[in-house]
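TASK: fixed-backbone design
INPUT:
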């Protein structure tokens, strides 16, 4: 049986054409995958990851060789001095917050050069929410440099901002979040870092690397970032790690962050890994593959939806540096229909019907499809978005390419019926 048989004939035809059209992009992604897999394998070999490392520790976790080895594997793969990979990080937001609290002292200054930070980070900084415990309450000053109308970093005005504000930490957000702006490639991040280092050589460069890992063949730490952060229920955990986050970068900054996560005198030397370590290690081994599958799915979705008349970003043939595919549906009904189809074609909770509903921290109702093995995991196929003009749905993840193809094809059928 051909899986496309239950689809309307125009969509069957569109899939055939799209598969031809995107062949070069899929081949290029497969090549990236091979290179990233080789990089990861080389680090596992060099750090001598052993069967005995998979079992995790209890109590203080004082002699957790598996944990310490995984830190070294991350550091090697990301081309930096050190890393802190821990199940005690509860989410990407928490990991980023620990990184920032580690870098910043009261009275110091944080500048985001990529526009407003991701929604949940605004609360950490103290821009929204009640500010209790925020960086602001701790006396950290904050500014962000608005983007240009084209969604690019405003280099023209940045020079002045750097000179007058004199930031101690300069932050870059790689992925677009819920903004209608492009995600920034490693080449673009390299340009940003070189630019700001000329004017503020003493500043620490922090990159929010969420959704970026293994999308390209380098990470921000390999082009000058001092510290990066990400979530293990996004790319780096491959849907296998069930919780956690990572920081990677300069060893002094990693130790400072470790002290914030645990306590002075403890730092990175304690922290039991319980039953989490096997998934964290295996997840990192599988991360290049999971990321490639998700991105191939995003390329397929971009091409198919464009062929069917929808505006998408990035387009199927544009460079990719993260998992996110924005699809502009221009109708609240279509947003809900799209999310429902993704949910229906998920392995878990396929029988659940997503509804648009209010969510903490967001101004507009959010519609969300996530039939995932790990709750809230977005390396697994998921779709969400705030129900407001231009009614854009954000599609991301997919542990297998076939899963994304099937779910997206059916979503297209549903929004066009
Ligand atoms: C996902 C994400 C985060 C962190 O989000 P969590 O939901 O807390 O894991 C931060 N920044 C960006 C750009 C993200 O995509």
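OUTPUT:
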């Amino acid at each position: 049986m051909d899986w496309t048989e239950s689809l309307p004939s125009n969509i069957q035809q569109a899939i055939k054409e799209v598969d031809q059209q995107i062949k070069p992009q899929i081949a290029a992604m497969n090549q990236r995958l091979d290179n990233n897999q080789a990089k990861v394998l080389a680090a596992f070999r060099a750090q001598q990851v052993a069967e005995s490392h998979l079992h995790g520790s209890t109590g203080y976790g004082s002699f957790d060789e598996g944990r310490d080895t995984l830190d070294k594997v991350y550091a090697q793969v990301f081309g930096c001095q050190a890393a802190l990979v821990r199940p005690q990080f509860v989410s990407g937001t928490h990991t980023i917050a620990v990184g920032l609290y580690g870098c910043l002292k009261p009275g110091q200054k944080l500048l985001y050069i990529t526009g407003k930070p991701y929604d949940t980070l605004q609360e950490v900084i103290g821009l929204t929410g009640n500010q209790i415990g925020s960086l602001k309450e701790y006396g950290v000053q904050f500014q962000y440099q608005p983007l240009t109308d084209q969604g690019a970093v405003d280099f023209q005005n940045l020079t002045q901002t750097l000179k007058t504000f004199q930031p101690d930490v300069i932050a870059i957000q790689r992925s677009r979040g819920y903004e209608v702006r492009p995600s920034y490639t490693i080449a673009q991040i390299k340009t940003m870092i070189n630019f700001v280092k000329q004017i503020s050589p003493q500043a620490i460069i922090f990159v929010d690397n969420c959704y970026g890992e293994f999308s390209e063949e380098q990470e921000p730490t390999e082009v000058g970032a001092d510290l990066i952060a990400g979530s293990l229920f996004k790319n780096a955990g491959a849907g296998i790690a069930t919780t956690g986050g990572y920081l990677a970068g300069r060893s002094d900054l990693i130790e400072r962050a470790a002290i914030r996560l645990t306590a002075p005198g403890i730092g990175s030397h304690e922290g039991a890994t319980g039953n989490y370590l096997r998934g964290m290690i295996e997840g990192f081994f599988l991360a290049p593959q999971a990321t490639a599958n998700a991105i191939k799915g995003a390329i397929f979705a971009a091409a198919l939806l464009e062929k069917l008349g929808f505006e998408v970003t990035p387009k199927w043939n544009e460079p990719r540096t993260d998992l996110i595919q924005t699809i502009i549906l221009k109708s609240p009904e279509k947003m809900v229909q799209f999310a429902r189809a993704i949910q229906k074609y998920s392995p878990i909770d396929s029988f659940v019907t997503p509804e648009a509903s209010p969510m903490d921290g967001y101004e507009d109702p959010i519609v969300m499809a996530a039939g995932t093995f790990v709750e809230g995991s977005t390396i697994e196929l998921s779709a969400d978005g705030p129900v407001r003009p231009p009614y854009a749905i954000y599609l991301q993840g997919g542990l297998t390419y076939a899963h994304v193809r099937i779910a997206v094809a059916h979503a297209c059928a549903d929004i066009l019926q």
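COMMENT: Residues 277-307 form the longest helix (31 residues).
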